[in-house]
Amino acid sequence: MFVALDAGQRPVTLRDHEQAKALVGDFVCPACRRPVGIRNGRVMPAHFYHLGPPCAASEPESAEHLAGKLWLMAYGQRRGFKPVLEQYYPQVRQRADVVWQQAGRALALEFQCSPISLERLAERSEGYRRLGVPVVWIMGKRYFARQPKALQAKFLAWSRRHGWHLWFLDVRADRLVLWQLAQGLLVTWYRPTASRRFRQATGPLPTKAALGVATALRHREPKAMALQAASATQHRNLAGVPWLVHAAPTGLIGLPLPEWQLRAWWLLTFDAAPDIKKAAEAAFWQRFAADRTPLVSAGALLAAVAAQWHRVLTASGAWQSTATGWQWRQPPAWYPTLEAKLAAVGREPAPTARPRNGRA
Protein backbone atom coordinates (compact mmCIF):
# COMPACT_ATOMS: atom_id res chain seq x y z
CA MET A 1 0.00 0.00 0.00
CA PHE A 2 1.11 3.59 -0.58
CA VAL A 3 -0.75 5.45 2.20
CA ALA A 4 -0.10 5.27 5.95
CA LEU A 5 -0.64 7.52 8.98
CA ASP A 6 2.29 9.14 10.75
CA ALA A 7 2.62 9.67 14.52
CA GLY A 8 0.34 12.70 14.25
CA GLN A 9 -2.35 10.67 12.46
CA ARG A 10 -1.64 12.57 9.24
CA PRO A 11 -1.80 10.60 5.95
CA VAL A 12 1.50 10.09 4.16
CA THR A 13 1.50 8.96 0.52
CA LEU A 14 4.59 7.25 -0.85
CA ARG A 15 5.24 8.31 -4.43
CA ASP A 16 8.84 7.35 -5.25
CA HIS A 17 12.03 5.77 -3.95
CA GLU A 18 13.71 9.07 -3.04
CA GLN A 19 10.81 10.07 -0.80
CA ALA A 20 10.89 6.65 0.86
CA LYS A 21 14.59 7.03 1.66
CA ALA A 22 13.93 10.33 3.41
CA LEU A 23 10.96 9.18 5.52
CA VAL A 24 11.62 8.53 9.20
CA GLY A 25 9.31 7.80 12.11
CA ASP A 26 6.55 5.37 12.98
CA PHE A 27 3.62 4.69 10.68
CA VAL A 28 0.37 2.76 11.00
CA CYS A 29 -2.22 1.39 8.59
CA PRO A 30 -5.19 3.79 8.17
CA ALA A 31 -7.64 0.87 8.33
CA CYS A 32 -6.47 -1.30 11.24
CA ARG A 33 -4.08 1.18 12.95
CA ARG A 34 -1.41 -1.50 13.30
CA PRO A 35 2.29 -0.72 12.61
CA VAL A 36 3.60 -0.72 9.06
CA GLY A 37 7.11 -0.47 7.65
CA ILE A 38 8.56 0.76 4.37
CA ARG A 39 9.89 -1.45 1.59
CA ASN A 40 12.12 0.36 -0.86
CA GLY A 41 13.74 -2.25 -3.09
CA ARG A 42 14.69 -2.19 -6.76
CA VAL A 43 11.97 -4.43 -8.21
CA MET A 44 8.76 -3.01 -6.75
CA PRO A 45 7.68 0.60 -6.18
CA ALA A 46 8.38 1.91 -2.68
CA HIS A 47 5.44 0.98 -0.46
CA PHE A 48 4.24 0.41 3.09
CA TYR A 49 3.70 -3.10 4.42
CA HIS A 50 2.22 -4.54 7.62
CA LEU A 51 4.81 -5.60 10.16
CA GLY A 52 2.40 -8.37 11.14
CA PRO A 53 -0.38 -10.08 9.15
CA PRO A 54 -2.11 -7.67 6.73
CA CYS A 55 -5.62 -6.53 7.56
CA ALA A 56 -8.66 -7.25 5.38
CA ALA A 57 -8.42 -3.81 3.73
CA SER A 58 -4.72 -4.24 2.88
CA GLU A 59 -4.11 -7.60 1.26
CA PRO A 60 -0.61 -8.48 -0.06
CA GLU A 61 0.10 -6.77 -3.37
CA SER A 62 2.08 -7.72 -6.45
CA ALA A 63 4.44 -5.42 -8.34
CA GLU A 64 1.82 -5.23 -11.09
CA HIS A 65 -0.87 -4.08 -8.66
CA LEU A 66 1.31 -1.41 -7.09
CA ALA A 67 2.49 -0.12 -10.48
CA GLY A 68 -1.07 -0.18 -11.80
CA LYS A 69 -2.34 2.06 -9.02
CA LEU A 70 0.39 4.60 -9.77
CA TRP A 71 -0.46 4.40 -13.48
CA LEU A 72 -4.15 5.07 -12.83
CA MET A 73 -3.30 7.96 -10.53
CA ALA A 74 -1.06 9.59 -13.16
CA TYR A 75 -3.55 8.95 -15.96
CA GLY A 76 -6.35 10.53 -13.92
CA GLN A 77 -4.23 13.63 -13.33
CA ARG A 78 -3.67 14.01 -17.09
CA ARG A 79 -7.42 13.85 -17.65
CA GLY A 80 -8.15 16.65 -15.20
CA PHE A 81 -9.14 14.58 -12.15
CA LYS A 82 -7.82 14.93 -8.64
CA PRO A 83 -6.76 11.35 -7.91
CA VAL A 84 -6.50 9.93 -4.41
CA LEU A 85 -4.49 6.79 -3.76
CA GLU A 86 -6.02 4.16 -1.49
CA GLN A 87 -8.99 6.11 -0.22
CA TYR A 88 -10.25 4.29 2.87
CA TYR A 89 -14.00 4.24 3.58
CA PRO A 90 -14.51 3.28 7.25
CA GLN A 91 -18.31 3.01 6.81
CA VAL A 92 -17.85 -0.14 4.73
CA ARG A 93 -14.27 -1.00 5.76
CA GLN A 94 -13.02 -0.86 2.18
CA ARG A 95 -10.01 0.76 0.61
CA ALA A 96 -10.31 1.82 -3.02
CA ASP A 97 -7.18 1.39 -5.12
CA VAL A 98 -7.61 4.85 -6.67
CA VAL A 99 -10.39 7.43 -6.52
CA TRP A 100 -10.75 10.06 -9.23
CA GLN A 101 -12.40 13.23 -7.89
CA GLN A 102 -13.83 16.04 -9.98
CA ALA A 103 -16.47 18.74 -9.33
CA GLY A 104 -17.53 17.17 -6.05
CA ARG A 105 -17.95 13.70 -7.53
CA ALA A 106 -15.89 10.58 -6.92
CA LEU A 107 -15.20 7.52 -9.09
CA ALA A 108 -13.58 4.49 -7.44
CA LEU A 109 -11.18 2.39 -9.53
CA GLU A 110 -10.43 -1.18 -8.49
CA PHE A 111 -7.46 -2.79 -10.25
CA GLN A 112 -7.96 -6.55 -9.92
CA CYS A 113 -4.84 -8.61 -10.56
CA SER A 114 -5.51 -11.61 -8.32
CA PRO A 115 -8.38 -14.13 -8.30
CA ILE A 116 -11.61 -12.89 -6.73
CA SER A 117 -14.81 -14.81 -6.06
CA LEU A 118 -18.22 -13.76 -7.35
CA GLU A 119 -19.31 -13.27 -3.75
CA ARG A 120 -16.39 -11.00 -2.85
CA LEU A 121 -16.78 -8.97 -6.04
CA ALA A 122 -20.48 -8.50 -5.32
CA GLU A 123 -19.78 -7.58 -1.67
CA ARG A 124 -17.24 -4.88 -2.54
CA SER A 125 -19.42 -3.47 -5.31
CA GLU A 126 -22.37 -3.32 -2.91
CA GLY A 127 -20.17 -1.41 -0.44
CA TYR A 128 -19.53 1.31 -3.02
CA ARG A 129 -23.22 1.38 -3.92
CA ARG A 130 -24.10 2.04 -0.28
CA LEU A 131 -21.63 4.93 -0.27
CA GLY A 132 -23.09 6.35 -3.46
CA VAL A 133 -19.69 6.04 -5.16
CA PRO A 134 -19.62 4.53 -8.68
CA VAL A 135 -16.91 1.89 -9.13
CA VAL A 136 -15.06 0.68 -12.21
CA TRP A 137 -13.37 -2.72 -12.06
CA ILE A 138 -10.22 -2.98 -14.16
CA MET A 139 -8.59 -6.35 -14.85
CA GLY A 140 -4.87 -7.11 -14.78
CA LYS A 141 -2.75 -9.47 -16.87
CA ARG A 142 -4.22 -12.60 -15.24
CA TYR A 143 -7.40 -11.82 -17.15
CA PHE A 144 -5.89 -10.84 -20.51
CA ALA A 145 -7.31 -12.69 -23.55
CA ARG A 146 -7.94 -12.15 -27.24
CA GLN A 147 -11.69 -12.51 -26.85
CA PRO A 148 -14.13 -12.24 -23.93
CA LYS A 149 -14.92 -15.57 -22.30
CA ALA A 150 -16.07 -17.00 -18.97
CA LEU A 151 -12.89 -15.84 -17.20
CA GLN A 152 -13.83 -12.19 -17.69
CA ALA A 153 -17.62 -12.59 -17.34
CA LYS A 154 -17.80 -11.62 -13.66
CA PHE A 155 -16.47 -8.15 -14.56
CA LEU A 156 -19.01 -7.48 -17.32
CA ALA A 157 -20.50 -4.01 -16.86
CA TRP A 158 -23.00 -1.75 -18.60
CA SER A 159 -23.19 2.02 -18.94
CA ARG A 160 -24.99 4.48 -21.20
CA ARG A 161 -21.69 5.67 -22.56
CA HIS A 162 -20.03 2.32 -23.28
CA GLY A 163 -22.89 -0.19 -23.42
CA TRP A 164 -21.76 -3.71 -22.41
CA HIS A 165 -18.07 -3.48 -21.67
CA LEU A 166 -14.93 -4.64 -19.85
CA TRP A 167 -11.81 -2.76 -18.72
CA PHE A 168 -8.18 -3.94 -18.62
CA LEU A 169 -4.90 -2.28 -17.66
CA ASP A 170 -1.70 -3.41 -19.34
CA VAL A 171 0.95 -1.65 -17.25
CA ARG A 172 3.89 -2.92 -19.28
CA ALA A 173 2.33 -1.80 -22.56
CA ASP A 174 1.38 1.54 -20.95
CA ARG A 175 -2.29 1.38 -21.91
CA LEU A 176 -5.79 1.17 -20.47
CA VAL A 177 -7.98 -1.07 -22.64
CA LEU A 178 -11.74 -0.91 -23.14
CA TRP A 179 -13.68 -3.80 -24.71
CA GLN A 180 -17.19 -2.93 -25.92
CA LEU A 181 -19.28 -5.99 -26.74
CA ALA A 182 -21.47 -4.97 -29.65
CA GLN A 183 -21.45 -6.13 -33.28
CA GLY A 184 -18.30 -8.04 -32.54
CA LEU A 185 -15.72 -6.46 -30.25
CA LEU A 186 -14.85 -2.77 -30.31
CA VAL A 187 -11.43 -2.28 -28.68
CA THR A 188 -10.02 1.06 -27.53
CA TRP A 189 -6.48 1.56 -26.26
CA TYR A 190 -6.05 4.60 -24.01
CA ARG A 191 -2.42 5.64 -23.70
CA PRO A 192 -1.14 8.63 -21.69
CA THR A 193 -0.94 10.88 -24.77
CA ALA A 194 -3.08 9.16 -27.45
CA SER A 195 -5.76 6.55 -28.07
CA ARG A 196 -6.51 3.98 -30.76
CA ARG A 197 -9.79 2.24 -31.62
CA PHE A 198 -10.35 -0.82 -33.79
CA ARG A 199 -12.95 -3.52 -34.33
CA GLN A 200 -12.18 -7.18 -33.74
CA ALA A 201 -14.35 -10.08 -34.90
CA THR A 202 -15.65 -12.48 -32.25
CA GLY A 203 -17.33 -15.86 -32.36
CA PRO A 204 -17.36 -18.41 -35.18
CA LEU A 205 -18.98 -17.94 -38.58
CA PRO A 206 -22.41 -19.64 -38.92
CA THR A 207 -21.02 -22.68 -40.77
CA LYS A 208 -18.33 -23.21 -38.15
CA ALA A 209 -20.94 -22.71 -35.41
CA ALA A 210 -23.11 -25.41 -37.02
CA LEU A 211 -20.15 -27.79 -37.07
CA GLY A 212 -19.56 -26.90 -33.42
CA VAL A 213 -23.01 -28.26 -32.53
CA ALA A 214 -22.08 -31.62 -34.04
CA THR A 215 -18.76 -31.57 -32.17
CA ALA A 216 -20.53 -30.90 -28.86
CA LEU A 217 -22.84 -33.86 -29.49
CA ARG A 218 -19.94 -36.11 -30.50
CA HIS A 219 -18.14 -35.23 -27.27
CA ARG A 220 -21.37 -35.70 -25.35
CA GLU A 221 -21.20 -32.33 -23.64
CA PRO A 222 -23.86 -32.39 -20.89
CA LYS A 223 -25.70 -29.18 -21.87
CA ALA A 224 -25.78 -30.15 -25.53
CA MET A 225 -26.96 -33.68 -24.66
CA ALA A 226 -29.80 -32.28 -22.53
CA LEU A 227 -30.86 -30.15 -25.48
CA GLN A 228 -30.57 -33.14 -27.83
CA ALA A 229 -32.82 -35.20 -25.55
CA ALA A 230 -35.45 -32.45 -25.56
CA SER A 231 -35.17 -32.18 -29.35
CA ALA A 232 -35.66 -35.92 -29.75
CA THR A 233 -38.99 -35.79 -27.88
CA GLN A 234 -40.20 -33.55 -30.71
CA HIS A 235 -38.66 -35.87 -33.35
CA ARG A 236 -35.90 -33.41 -34.12
CA ASN A 237 -32.14 -33.62 -34.39
CA LEU A 238 -30.13 -30.94 -32.58
CA ALA A 239 -27.46 -31.11 -35.29
CA GLY A 240 -30.15 -29.80 -37.66
CA VAL A 241 -31.18 -26.83 -35.50
CA PRO A 242 -32.32 -23.88 -37.71
CA TRP A 243 -29.67 -21.58 -39.12
CA LEU A 244 -31.26 -18.63 -37.33
CA VAL A 245 -29.86 -19.79 -33.99
CA HIS A 246 -26.39 -18.89 -35.29
CA ALA A 247 -27.37 -15.52 -36.81
CA ALA A 248 -26.08 -12.22 -35.39
CA PRO A 249 -25.51 -13.24 -31.74
CA THR A 250 -24.91 -10.56 -29.14
CA GLY A 251 -21.56 -12.03 -28.15
CA LEU A 252 -22.37 -11.35 -24.48
CA ILE A 253 -20.64 -13.40 -21.81
CA GLY A 254 -21.81 -14.59 -18.41
CA LEU A 255 -24.81 -16.48 -19.80
CA PRO A 256 -25.85 -19.79 -18.21
CA LEU A 257 -25.81 -21.46 -21.65
CA PRO A 258 -24.21 -20.61 -24.99
CA GLU A 259 -26.43 -18.14 -26.84
CA TRP A 260 -27.27 -20.60 -29.61
CA GLN A 261 -28.49 -23.09 -27.01
CA LEU A 262 -30.78 -20.49 -25.42
CA ARG A 263 -32.25 -19.85 -28.87
CA ALA A 264 -32.66 -23.57 -29.53
CA TRP A 265 -34.48 -24.06 -26.20
CA TRP A 266 -36.67 -21.10 -27.14
CA LEU A 267 -37.62 -22.69 -30.47
CA LEU A 268 -38.41 -26.03 -28.83
CA THR A 269 -40.70 -24.13 -26.46
CA PHE A 270 -42.51 -21.88 -28.91
CA ASP A 271 -42.16 -22.85 -32.57
CA ALA A 272 -45.18 -25.18 -32.48
CA ALA A 273 -47.40 -22.64 -30.69
CA PRO A 274 -50.01 -20.84 -32.82
CA ASP A 275 -49.08 -17.58 -31.11
CA ILE A 276 -46.63 -16.49 -28.42
CA LYS A 277 -47.83 -14.46 -25.44
CA LYS A 278 -45.54 -11.83 -23.95
CA ALA A 279 -45.98 -13.21 -20.43
CA ALA A 280 -45.05 -16.74 -21.47
CA GLU A 281 -42.05 -15.51 -23.42
CA ALA A 282 -40.81 -13.42 -20.47
CA ALA A 283 -41.23 -16.42 -18.16
CA PHE A 284 -39.09 -18.50 -20.52
CA TRP A 285 -36.10 -16.16 -20.22
CA GLN A 286 -36.53 -15.86 -16.47
CA ARG A 287 -35.89 -19.61 -16.19
CA PHE A 288 -32.29 -19.00 -17.20
CA ALA A 289 -31.49 -16.16 -14.80
CA ALA A 290 -28.25 -16.91 -12.93
CA ASP A 291 -25.98 -14.86 -10.67
CA ARG A 292 -22.84 -14.94 -12.82
CA THR A 293 -22.43 -11.20 -13.38
CA PRO A 294 -22.36 -9.29 -10.06
CA LEU A 295 -21.95 -5.89 -11.75
CA VAL A 296 -25.10 -6.24 -13.86
CA SER A 297 -28.39 -8.00 -13.22
CA ALA A 298 -29.03 -11.36 -14.84
CA GLY A 299 -32.38 -9.99 -15.98
CA ALA A 300 -30.77 -7.13 -17.91
CA LEU A 301 -28.28 -9.50 -19.54
CA LEU A 302 -30.99 -11.93 -20.67
CA ALA A 303 -33.19 -9.04 -21.81
CA ALA A 304 -30.42 -7.96 -24.19
CA VAL A 305 -30.09 -11.51 -25.54
CA ALA A 306 -33.87 -11.83 -25.92
CA ALA A 307 -34.19 -8.49 -27.69
CA GLN A 308 -31.49 -9.45 -30.20
CA TRP A 309 -33.21 -12.79 -30.84
CA HIS A 310 -36.44 -10.90 -31.48
CA ARG A 311 -34.64 -8.71 -34.01
CA VAL A 312 -33.23 -11.77 -35.78
CA LEU A 313 -36.68 -13.37 -36.01
CA THR A 314 -38.24 -10.13 -37.27
CA ALA A 315 -35.49 -9.53 -39.85
CA SER A 316 -35.94 -13.06 -41.21
CA GLY A 317 -39.70 -12.59 -41.60
CA ALA A 318 -40.35 -15.60 -39.37
CA TRP A 319 -42.88 -13.84 -37.12
CA GLN A 320 -44.81 -10.62 -36.61
CA SER A 321 -46.04 -8.62 -33.62
CA THR A 322 -49.59 -8.84 -32.30
CA ALA A 323 -51.44 -6.97 -29.54
CA THR A 324 -50.55 -9.66 -26.99
CA GLY A 325 -47.21 -10.90 -28.30
CA TRP A 326 -46.17 -12.44 -31.59
CA GLN A 327 -47.56 -14.69 -34.28
CA TRP A 328 -45.67 -17.01 -36.59
CA ARG A 329 -45.56 -16.28 -40.28
CA GLN A 330 -43.22 -19.19 -40.99
CA PRO A 331 -41.31 -20.89 -38.15
CA PRO A 332 -37.60 -21.52 -38.86
CA ALA A 333 -36.92 -24.92 -40.45
CA TRP A 334 -35.18 -27.72 -38.59
CA TYR A 335 -33.11 -30.14 -40.69
CA PRO A 336 -33.02 -33.92 -40.34
CA THR A 337 -29.20 -34.03 -40.36
CA LEU A 338 -26.17 -31.77 -40.29
CA GLU A 339 -25.52 -32.67 -43.92
CA ALA A 340 -28.99 -31.47 -44.94
CA LYS A 341 -28.45 -28.27 -42.97
CA LEU A 342 -25.11 -27.55 -44.64
CA ALA A 343 -26.62 -28.32 -48.05
CA ALA A 344 -29.23 -25.61 -47.43
CA VAL A 345 -26.58 -22.87 -47.19
CA GLY A 346 -27.41 -20.19 -49.72
CA ARG A 347 -31.09 -21.07 -49.85
CA GLU A 348 -31.88 -19.59 -46.43
CA PRO A 349 -32.79 -15.90 -46.11
CA ALA A 350 -29.97 -13.99 -44.41
CA PRO A 351 -31.16 -11.99 -41.38
CA THR A 352 -29.60 -8.55 -41.11
CA ALA A 353 -30.33 -7.83 -37.46
CA ARG A 354 -27.33 -6.70 -35.51
CA PRO A 355 -26.94 -6.35 -31.76
CA ARG A 356 -27.37 -2.87 -30.35
CA ASN A 357 -24.84 -1.33 -28.05
CA GLY A 358 -26.93 -1.07 -24.93
CA ARG A 359 -29.67 -2.44 -22.76
CA ALA A 360 -32.81 -3.96 -24.24
Largest sheet: 5 strands, antiparallel
Tally the helices: what do you get?
10
User: Based on CA inertia axes, which overall geometry fits?
Assistant: elongated
Could you state the order of secondary-structure elements as H and E?
A: EEHEEEHEEEEEHEHEEEEEHHHEHHEEH
Structure commentary:
- With 360 residues, this protein is of the alpha+beta class.
- Helices cover 31% and strands 23% of the residues.
- It contains ten helices and 19 strands.
- It has a five-stranded antiparallel β-sheet with strand order 12-13-14-15-16, with no helix packed on it.
- Helix 6 runs parallel beside helix 7.
- It is elongated, with a radius of gyration of 25 Å.
- The mean pLDDT is 91.
List the keywords.
360 residues, alpha+beta, 5-stranded antiparallel beta sheet
Write the layout of secondary structure elements.
Blueprint: E1 3-5, E2 11-13, H1 17-22, E3 27-28, E4 35-39, E5 47-50, H2 63-78, E6 82-85, E7 88-89, E8 94-95, E9 98-102, E10 105-112, H3 118-131, E11 135-139, H4 150-153, E12 157-159, E13 163-170, E14 175-181, E15 185-190, E16 195-200, H5 206-218, H6 222-233, H7 259-270, E17 275-277, H8 278-286, H9 298-316, E18 319-321, E19 325-328, H10 338-343
Parallel strand pairs: 10-11
Antiparallel strand pairs: 1-2, 3-4, 4-5, 6-9, 7-8, 9-10, 12-13, 13-14, 14-15, 15-16, 17-19, 18-19
Helix pairs in contact: 6-7
In short:
The chain has helices at 17-22, 63-78, 118-131, 150-153, 206-218, 222-233, 259-270, 278-286, 298-316, 338-343; strands spanning 3-5, 11-13, 27-28, 35-39, 47-50, 82-85, 88-89, 94-95, 98-102, 105-112, 135-139, 157-159, 163-170, 175-181, 185-190, 195-200, 275-277, 319-321, 325-328. It is α+β, with helices and mostly antiparallel strands. A 5-stranded antiparallel sheet has the order 12-13-14-15-16, with no helix packed on it. The protein has a 4-stranded mixed sheet with strand order 6-9-10-11, with helices on both faces. The chain has a 3-stranded antiparallel sheet with strand order 3-4-5, with no helix packed on it.
